[in-house]
């Protein structure tokens, strides 16, 4: 199955054979294929994505950054026991814990073949088969559509494969890879793809990456790509009830922290709320104040001067909310003001929600209408007094 | 780890037994877990050669692992060296594999060595195996430790996350292999550089914003959010914005905004932020120009605690509270870890295939040394608790003190009354301890560091015995400028105190007592002593630390006792340019100390015991090859006939073993004076652990002592007891401390020089504890 690394280095290998003019792709062809997938992900925002023949897991790693994806799965027949690279690059890192994702993400790698059925791969939004089918012998190639299109039946399938019409431009005139069972011209690929699409009720569009050099435009892209979209996708979703069938062996799985978990949400929310209140507190200390009903209130709007706010509209919204105030050595920020800060508002949609969450993590005043913090901290005590 | 350094075999008197005998036996639980191996277990080291040669390590490993005979075997392979726990049939095994390109590769696996379980290489392999196991326990490796990101302790008000975890290692202890785990916390900052900069801006305003940012940020290590790499901030480029373009590796141009969106699906929120510049170290050691990396502040996290944070008392208190673990809490963490390892399928499989058995927590027997009497001038006191005896010695006279006649108090105009109240108190407590304090000349100045300094310049002359400064704030510049002036330019002992401290009325007496004792020491006085049976013994403490400003400078402190009672000290300090922490000037210092001793005692000491602190991991070898000879040559040159006998002991406060006593259903800290000299020690060393510091809420950590050179031939029991006695003699604290007093003095001295004065203190001060 997919040996992306090998294909990539093929392009570099050309440089060693000076007989014909070297064709070098910028960015390298494999990156162009991966970016093609990334662009499609940006466009369609799939939640569940599987890469069949993930090879060295580079594409999986590149896709894990997309916020829309919640399940990312790789399948490869050669998936050995996981390497250090996979563990360290596919597992959550310190940054992922400090800035949790909005949505959950689990990454799972399976050992298995694209011509075996495993029920865990049913119901995906996107499946990619990058440089995969040319590695299948005729028997497996015959089974492939039934498994991927018929059984897995994802919303979108991307299949890429070499375009043999491009081969004469390469120095060596054999297949691009020794393990390739075939390399198709555009006609062959498109015929096969259209037949499969018709049979399983998909529509298909053809494109590619790796533009031919000037003067050779007629050969088409170096890599040809078919993008298959399921017709009447919505209707079938509900009637899927496939029996559980676990054929693939799990070799690696990991889950990312996200804001869906309450403790993470609380943490991020507390940080944003404290940042907002801190900015107002520093403003409050230096601004003119007056005493009203035992409270010290700012004469101005007490809107932080720098950071946190981007637009005038946001500023106006903060200005029109209740002002913070001070009683004794405590500084109070009304929740109604806190929620007008864009980064707080992004996390919670109502004052009630803000109140119920904050009451678990930070100190609120007695009627739970405002956040309570110390007016002075280490910094304002040691520095501002000079 | 200092593996393979065997110092004990050269010490004839401890070759057979290095255990002491005095004291009461005590049963202790440890954080050591036995690792049992079948008898005659061996590790087989192979070399694997590939024909044709393969560049890629991944490919080399994959090809070897694809062979069926390796699939279920315990193995560790880095692409060249292969370790197996079972011997292959033949000494040389030939295998061949086919790459996915269809190329046939021949692999030749040749047996190089058979290693016993105790060999250093084998211990390294076992450490690698445990690293693999911990990764499978969903632990995250940072440095050498493993942390649990799933159970963080959050401190939102200080933007900190603490990850609990363990420092782990496998080592050969006295009779068997042991796995050690000690609870550790990783402090993570929950703040991006952009947020930090916004904070600066809100605090200081725009006028000196750029300057403040550079001052606070340059030199900090940051962690990038997207690829988990760390960089040092070398510069800030204010002219570059995220909307500017840069050239990618493939030559195409792209803006930072688009790059992070495309690559990482990150939308930058602030398009006006500057970029941070980091110079990348070239992997090859050639002179090619360093490459620069541009980093976006919004995507970089600050790591570690900044200087501002470490001076924040509130913050440090919260961190200490959250990370402090009682012996019971610690014990529970250990039990859970052991349980996790034994339950985890992968961990069990890995251990089983290697033939390792993860055993139970080891217990051993230690001894509690007899407590020491504290000798005052006309009184011998037996403290109620050796942890602190200030109450026991109330109204006792200190051993000796010079009267304080000519001295100055400098304070701000505002603090006039504070100074007067304090002086009254000081004179009272001084007279009751036998330290006569006369009235000083009182100088009132304005409230800024420059005013204090000019008062010093104006009023201090060589006749002044001591200068006391009452500082209106703990701003570092006050302290630093005063200490710098009075320690090297105009050598006069000095005493600083904060107004805030002196204002604590209800604690006035105890504060004045502490200050009176410090002053007495700074004038060359002696506070108390313990009984030292050896009649002519010099003890020496050496410590090394890095200078705060110039990181390539190290400060070496050397403190030696100059009387048999071990109450008077000779202190030297030097700054030296070197990248290692190894002291270079010891011969000069040692000779100076011997001369001082000769002058005071009309002869040389019969014995010298040197305690060396500040030794990093893996430095033991250099110490033995480089520092011990320096000390020895000074000692042998000192006299033509019988030269003093020398012992050198390496002191380490950071060691992984922990000890607890078990009391019905709970565990506690062991009593003060507990010595462990078996089972948790190392067979190749003459070493022991001593618990000499009390921990009221947390868990005590024992101090490890390793005698690397010993001409004295003292019995192990005497060596242990001498060490314990020396932990009573630190005059800045009326109680036991965790290391021998000379080490603590040397530490205090190097700290003062490294943090504040950055110059060698004047030789004129070397006869008093001027740095207390």
TrEMBL record, chain A:
Its EC number is 2.1.1.386. It is an enzyme of class 2 (transferase). It catalyses: small RNA 3'-end nucleotide + S-adenosyl-L-methionine = small RNA 3'-end 2'-O-methylnucleotide + S-adenosyl-L-homocysteine + H(+). SUPFAM superfamilies: S-adenosyl-L-methionine-dependent methyltransferases (SSF53335). Keywords: Acetylation, Magnesium, Metal-binding, Methyltransferase, RNA-binding, RNA-mediated gene silencing, S-adenosyl-L-methionine, Transferase. InterPro entries: Hen1, SAM-dependent_MTases_sf. Its cofactor is Mg(2+). Belongs to the methyltransferase superfamily. HEN1 family. This is Small RNA 2'-O-methyltransferase. It comes from Vulpes vulpes. The lineage of its organism: Eukaryota, Metazoa, Chordata, Craniata, Vertebrata. The gene is HENMT1.
From TrEMBL, chain B:
Residues 466-758 form the Piwi domain. The keyword RNA-binding applies. CDD domains: PAZ_piwi_like, Piwi_piwi-like_Euk. Keywords: RNA-binding, RNA-mediated gene silencing, Translation regulation. It comes from the Eukaryota. InterPro entries: PAZ_dom, PAZ_dom_sf, Piwi, RNaseH-like_sf, RNaseH_sf. Residues 192-304 form the PAZ domain. Belongs to the argonaute family. This is Piwi-like protein 4 isoform X1. It comes from Vulpes vulpes.
């Amino acid at each position: 199955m997919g040996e992306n690394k090998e294909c990539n280095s093929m392009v570099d290998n050309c440089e060693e054979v000076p007989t014909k003019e070297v064709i070098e792709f910028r960015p390298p062809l494999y990156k162009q294929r991966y970016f093609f997938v990334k662009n499609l992900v940006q466009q369609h925002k799939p939640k569940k994505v599987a890469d069949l023949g993930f090879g060295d897991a580079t594409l999986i790693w590149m896709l894990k950054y997309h916020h829309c994806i919640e399940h990312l799965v790789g399948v490869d027949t050669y998936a050995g026991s996981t390497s250090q690279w996979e563990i360290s690059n596919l597992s959550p890192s310190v940054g992922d814990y400090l800035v949790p994702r909005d949505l959950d993400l689990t990454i799972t790698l399976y050992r298995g073949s694209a011509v075996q059925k495993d029920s865990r791969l049913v119901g995906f939004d996107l499946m990619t088969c990058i440089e995969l089918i040319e590695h299948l012998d005729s028997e497996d190639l015959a089974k492939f559509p039934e498994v991927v299109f018929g059984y897995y039946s994802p919303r979108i399938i991307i299949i890429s494969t070499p375009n043999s019409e491009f081969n004469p431009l390469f120095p060596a005139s054999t297949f691009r890879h020794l393990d390739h069972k075939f390399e198709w011209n555009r006609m062959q690929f498109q015929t096969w793809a259209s037949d499969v699409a018709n049979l399983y009720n998909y529509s298909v569009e053809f494109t590619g990456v790796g533009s031919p050099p000037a003067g050779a435009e007629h050969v088409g892209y170096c890599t040809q790509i078919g993008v298959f979209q399921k017709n009447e996708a919505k209707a079938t979703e509900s009637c899927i009830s496939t029996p559980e069938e676990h054929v693939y062996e799990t070799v690696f799985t990991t889950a990312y922290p996200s804001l869906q978990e309450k403790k993470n949400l609380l943490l991020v929310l507390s940080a944003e709320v404290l940042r907002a209140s801190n900015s107002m507190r520093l403003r409050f200390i230096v601004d003119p104040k007056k005493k009203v009903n035992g409270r010290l209130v700012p004469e101005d709007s007490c809107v932080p001067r720098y950071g946190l706010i981007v637009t005038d509209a946001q500023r106006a919204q903060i200005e029109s909310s209740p002002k913070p105030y001070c009683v004794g050595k405590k500084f109070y920020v009304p929740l109604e003001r806190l929620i007008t800060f864009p980064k707080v508002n992004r996390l919670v949609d109502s004052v009630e929600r803000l109140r119920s969450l904050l009451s678990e993590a930070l100190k609120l005043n007695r009627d739970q209408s405002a956040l309570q913090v110390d007016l002075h901290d280490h910094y304002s005590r040691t520095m501002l007094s000079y | 780890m200092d593996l393979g350094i065997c110092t004990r075999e050269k010490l004839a008197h401890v070759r057979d037994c290095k255990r002491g005998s005095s004291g009461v036996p005590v049963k202790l639980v440890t954080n050591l877990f036995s690792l049992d191996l079948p008898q005659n277990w061996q590790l087989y080291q192979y070399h694997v050669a590939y024909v044709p040669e393969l560049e890629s390590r991944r490919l080399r490993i994959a090809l070897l692992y694809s062979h069926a005979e390796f699939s279920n075997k315990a193995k560790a392979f880095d692409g060249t060296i292969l370790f197996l726990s079972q011997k292959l049939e033949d000494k040389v095994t030939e295998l061949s594999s086919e790459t996915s390109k269809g190329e046939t590769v021949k692999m030749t696996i040749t047996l190089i060595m058979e290693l016993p379980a105790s060999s250093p290489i084998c211990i390294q392999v076992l450490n690698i195996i445990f690293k693999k196991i911990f990764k499978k326990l969903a632990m995250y490796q940072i440095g050498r430790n493993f942390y649990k990101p799933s159970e963080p302790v959050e401190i939102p008000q200080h933007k900190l996350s603490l990850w609990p975890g363990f420092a782990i290692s496998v080592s050969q202890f006295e009779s068997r292999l042991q796995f050690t785990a000690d609870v550790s916390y990783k402090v993570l900052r929950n703040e991006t550089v952009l947020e930090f900069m916004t904070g600066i801006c809100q605090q200081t305003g725009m006028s000196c914003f750029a300057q403040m940012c550079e001052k606070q940020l340059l030199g900090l290590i940051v962690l990038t959010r997207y690829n988990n790499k760390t960089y040092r901030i070398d510069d800030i480029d204010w002219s570059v914005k995220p909307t500017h373009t840069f050239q990618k590796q493939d030559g195409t141009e792209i803006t930072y905004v688009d790059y992070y969106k495309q690559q990482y699906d990150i939308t930058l929120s602030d398009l006006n932020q500057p970029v941070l510049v980091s110079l990348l170290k070239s992997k090859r050691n050639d002179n090619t120009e360093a490459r620069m990396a541009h980093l976006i502040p919004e995507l970089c996290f600050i790591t570690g605690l900044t200087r501002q944070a470490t001076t924040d008392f509130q913050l440090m208190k919260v961190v200490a509270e959250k990370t402090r673990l009682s012996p019971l809490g610690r014990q529970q963490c250990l039990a859970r870890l052991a349980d996790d390892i034994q339950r985890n399928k992968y961990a069990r499989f890995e251990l089983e295939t290697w033939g390792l058995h993860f055993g139970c927590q080891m217990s051993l027997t230690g001894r509690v040394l007899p407590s020491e009497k504290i000798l005052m001038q006309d009184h011998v006191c037996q403290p109620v608790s050796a942890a602190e005896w200030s109450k026991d010695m109330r109204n006792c006279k200190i051993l000796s003190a010079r009267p304080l006649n000519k001295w100055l108090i400098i304070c701000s105009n505002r603090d006039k009354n504070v100074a007067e109240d304090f002086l009254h108190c000081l004179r009272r407590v001084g007279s009751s301890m036998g330290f006569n304090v006369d009235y000083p000349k009182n100088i009132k100045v304005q409230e800024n560091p420059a005013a204090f300094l000019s008062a010093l310049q104006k009023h201090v002359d060589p006749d002044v015995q001591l200068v006391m400064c009452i500082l209106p704030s703990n701003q570092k510049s006050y302290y630093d400028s005063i200490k710098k002036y009075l320690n090297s330019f105009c050598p006069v002992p000095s005493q600083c105190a904060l107004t805030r401290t002196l204002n604590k009325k209800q604690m006035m007496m105890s504060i004045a007592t502490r200050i009176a004792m410090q002053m007495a020491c700074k004038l060359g006085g002696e506070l108390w002593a313990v009984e030292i049976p050896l009649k002519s013994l010099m003890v020496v403490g050496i410590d090394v630390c890095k200078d705060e400003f110039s990181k390539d400078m190290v400060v070496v402190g050397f403190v030696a006792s100059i009387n048999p009672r071990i109450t008077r000290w000779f202190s030297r300090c030097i700054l030296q340019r070197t990248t290692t922490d190894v002291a270079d000037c010891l011969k000069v210092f040692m000779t100076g100390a011997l001369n001082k001793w000769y002058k005071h005692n009309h002869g040389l000491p019969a014995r010298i015991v040197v305690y060396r602190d500040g030794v990093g991991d893996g430095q033991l070898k250099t110490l033995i090859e480089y520092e011990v000879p320096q000390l020895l040559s000074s000692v042998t040159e000192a006299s033509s006939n019988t030269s003093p006998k020398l012992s050198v002991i390496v002191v380490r406060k950071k060691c992984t073993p922990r000890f607890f006593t078990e009391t019905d259903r709970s565990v506690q800290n062991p009593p003060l004076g507990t010595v462990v000299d078996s089972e948790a020690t190392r067979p190749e060393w003459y070493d022991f652990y001593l618990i000499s510091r009390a921990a009221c809420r947390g868990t005590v950590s024992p101090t490890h002592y390793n005698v690397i050179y010993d001409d004295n031939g003292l019995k192990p029991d005497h060596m242990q007891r001498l060490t314990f006695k020396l932990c009573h003699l630190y005059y800045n604290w009326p109680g036991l401390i965790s290391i021998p007093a000379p080490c603590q003095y040397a530490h205090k001295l190097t700290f003062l020089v490294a943090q504040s004065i950055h110059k060698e203190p004047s030789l004129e001060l070397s006869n008093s504890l001027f740095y207390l």
